[in-house]
Amino acid sequence: MSHFVPHAPGYVDNGGPKIVTSRFEYDDSFTLERYEATDGYEGLRRALDRTPAQVHDEVRDATVLGRGGAGFPAGVKWGFMPPGKFPYYLVVNGDESEPGTYKDRLLMERDPHQLIEGCLITCYALGLAQCFLYVRGEMALAQERLARALNDAYAKGYVGKNILGTDFSVDITLTWGAGAYIVGEETALIESLEGNRGMPRLKPPYFPAAIGLYGQPTIVNNVETLSNLPWLMMNGAEAYKQFGSEASPGTRMVAISGHVKRPGVYEIEQGVTTFRDLFYGDDFCQGIRDDNELKMFVPGGGSAPWFFPEQLDLPLEGRVVGSEGSMLGSGAIMVMDETTDAVKAALRLVRFYARESCGKCTPCREGTTWEERVLQRILDGEGRPSDIDMLLDIADNISPGPYPVAADPTQGLDAVPFPPKQTTICPLGPSSVAPITSTIRRFRHEYDAKITKRDAIPVTAAAMTTAPGNSEGG
Amino acid sequence: MSYFTPDNLAIAHEIISRYPVAKSALIPLLHLAQEQEGWVTDDAMRQIADLTDTTPAEVKGTGSFYEMFKFHPVGKYLVNVCTNLSCQLLGGEELLAHAEKSLGVKAGGTTADGMFTIEDVECIAACTEAPCLQVNYRYRLRVSDEDFDGLIDDIRNGRADDIPEHGTLGRVRQHIPAGSMAGIVPPEQANERPVWLARNDEPASGGTEEGEET
Description:
The structure holds 2 protein chains of 2 kinds.
Chain A: E1 3-4, E2 12-13, H1 32-37, H2 42-48, H3 52-62, H4 74-78, E3 88-94, H5 104-110, H6 112-126, E4 128-135, H7 140-155, E5 171-176, H8 186-193, E6 218-222, H9 223-227, H10 229-240, E7 251-258, E8 264-269, H11 275-280, E9 294-298, H12 318-323, E10 332-337, H13 342-356, H14 362-379, H15 387-398, H16 428-431, H17 433-450, H18 461-464
Parallel strand pairs in A: 3-4, 3-6, 4-5, 7-10
Antiparallel strand pairs in A: 1-2, 7-8, 9-10
Chain B: H1 6-16, H2 26-37, H3 42-52, H4 56-63, E1 77-82, H5 85-89, H6 92-103, E2 116-121, E3 133-135, E4 138-140, H7 145-156
Parallel strand pairs in B: 1-2
Antiparallel strand pairs in B: 1-3, 3-4
Helix pairs in contact in B: 2-3, 3-4
């Protein structure tokens, strides 16, 4: 039976297998006492009984896919470290801020020791000299819980010098950001950790394994990814692969928000549960609010192209969702019912990217701002018939694709490539394109209904003013 | 003259000691300054520059990128209402409008008594509990208009003791006892292989002398 867990608001226990949320049922799950009483730091002990290479092999064999967004296998990413170029560093990406996403926050607040243990296993396996645990600035409780957990873990000899009496020694430094979505991009995260503005670095190199923190080989892993490792060390890759599908083993946490009866954060088996199960199942969201019709949903965070009712029966598996032209990304699903204004919803996500653009690449800095302004004036009834072409033209500048500019608008948008091509260093700008192409393709009539018939209508000052933004910068 | 109080200066040095490069402590030190005074002053940035071997311009250059740092006084309580998509779908914008009306200031503004600043913010990671807000980065979930007014009333009357004044984030600090530290490894300490990797050189044995597991 599924149920809410009062001390973990948002989390819903759906009665399924639990790898990372196994302690959420305890109201003191964040304490060392509870952690030790529930096999805490046993995974680390098992790891230390093996060679570092054996631990790495176990993670590779289990195919632990990255849970931050790109879904890249952690064991493979680890293999990119150039041999012998010490010191190596570990940076934990706890800067969760993709719209609709939260699971890393719950993992940090509810089970900080599990994350710490995952960090230690990683450092042991790869010979990492130091770990930096970067938590989003706005997550005060997560910072507090992690600080206490680290202090307790140091005191008991789980972290620091000669861990558990062995030759393995590593420090974990808790560090935190100050409000900038783009810092979730791994090279921007490294810049921020070096004390700079959080702007992504030019690629290549594509992975910080080559050149990372302070120019040294660096692993950047997501909080949820690392939180899987203690269980994996305890139970082994074979047991891990009993859950989920062959290509996407294990579980993952998904947050379903918006117009469902019981929104929540659920731990589900990858590649098994479908979107329909999630939205309508008794153990999950129990249907659309007021029994309305489903209009559309965002399957994997604000950056993912949108899905519609005909995609309900797809399983939540990165590969499958990818082949349908979107992504599971960060596990954030936003559900919109028939009452939703498609243009307004698209504008809200586009506005997010316009606000959060770091300003380094011109197509993104200028383009996202223009997208926002044009969408805003359409919503305000000031739009012109040429605005749809203009939106697609701006999109084409940020993320080149076969957009049907000035052609039959109902055709061609199906061919918009995903993952998007980009004229920018990072995917932020191209992410702003997805809400626009998704809604124009499907709800062109809603745009048309808002757009005035006069192309020559002057644009008023009001329509050109962006909504009150946050302070300068990212 | 030190900007930081003696206690905070000691904390600042401790923070810096946990990084291989002092400049990495820049953001945590800006938070510490904001905790001390509620916002980041020019004097604070000068001292942070000294502490991190940078210039005041670099400190401001980095700091101004991040929304949480305030370079002018703000209210004692920063009320951040989320209006991103998940919250918008369930009344986030209406909640913001209510907050603006209730406090008599627009988003970005501060009440005349210096108590409250309202901000219209992006996703704060509580999407299933929409509409949501944070006051000084403490969550309030599924907030109705009445809830909002009750919250403001509680704060004004000192009944919201989980919410510290603006600037304070986590109320527990990391502290590593000197003897427990593995020792930070600066990047220039090149090609020193961690000792435990030598275990990979031995023929795979699996198990140490103390292993009581199989």
